[in-house]
Write a structure and sequence with these properties.
The chain has 191 residues and is α+β, with helices and mostly antiparallel strands. It has one domain: Electron Transport, Fmn-binding Protein, Chain A (Pnp Oxidase, Chain A), CATH 2.30.110. α4 crosses α5. The longest helix has 15 residues. The model has no long low-confidence stretch (mean pLDDT 97). The chain binds flavin mononucleotide. Flavin mononucleotide (FMN) binds next to β2, β4 and α2.
């Protein structure tokens, strides 16, 4: 296979069929401008010919790091398939229209939660989050809840993929794809 996106789709389809939950969960690694890394799980919510999309609060720790360093790495680990996929690349913002579309598809409480949560900032006690949510519910009795300006998505634009498949005796198979001016180059790595 010479197109890593097609390879990803094939493995993702198998993961979707086989994983017990969250086949779209991926570790997102970001970095400060000084090179201090951090990682957390987010959900893959879109994939097109350009890249991989997730949604979050842009004022979170990851949002701060992405504001100062536009590079990220993604990692999928599908335990039941004994596979991992690593993706690295630049990050761009999704458009407001794209974010609006996805936000509108979310459950009402999730949409209110995006307003209620000051993601990654100190929360004195859980009851405060519940109070904020209750106040928002009263403020927005209908389903017309605008998207918070600080809640949106990012697209990771891959320049490198690695597909890792478990093999007997730790002689695993590793296939890499790197992008140059002409397209994708592929090769193998020692396990
Ligand atoms: C299975 C799973 C899915 C998650 N999905 C998301 C997500 O799509 N977006 C998000 O902002 N946080 C998601 N989280 C929470 C993040 O891991 C993290 O706690 C949060 O985004 C704050 O990270 P930060 O402080 O590094 O910005 C998820 C956590 C888990 C375990």
């Amino acid at each position: 296979m010479t197109d890593p996106f097609l390879q990803f789709d094939a493995w993702f389809a198998e993961a979707t069929a086989g994983e017990i939950n969250d086949p779209n969960a991926m570790t997102l690694a970001t970095c400060t401008k000084d090179g201090v890394p951090s990682a957390r799980i987010v959900l893959l919510k879109g994939r097109d010919e350009r890249g991989f999309v997730f949604y979050t609060n842009k004022q979170s720790r990851k949002g701060d790091e992405l504001a100062e360093n536009r590079q990220a790495a993604l990692l999928f680990h599908w335990k039941s398939l004994q596979r991992q996929v690593r993706i690295e690349g630049d990050v761009e913002d999704v458009t407001d229209e794209e974010a609006d579309r996805y936000y509108a598809s979310r459950a009402r409480i999730s949409r209110l939660g995006a307003w209620a949560s000051q993601q990654s900032r100190p929360l004195p006690e859980r009851a405060e989050l519940e109070r904020r949510l209750a106040a928002l519910e009263a403020e927005h009795p209908t389903d017309a809840i605008p998207r918070p300006p600080h809640w949106s998505g990012y697209r990771v634009l891959p320049r490198r993929f690695e597909f890792w498949q478990d093999m007997p005796y730790r002689l695993h198979d590793r296939t890499i794809f790197t992008r140059d001016a002409h397209g994708w180059e592929t090769g193998k790595l020692y396990p």
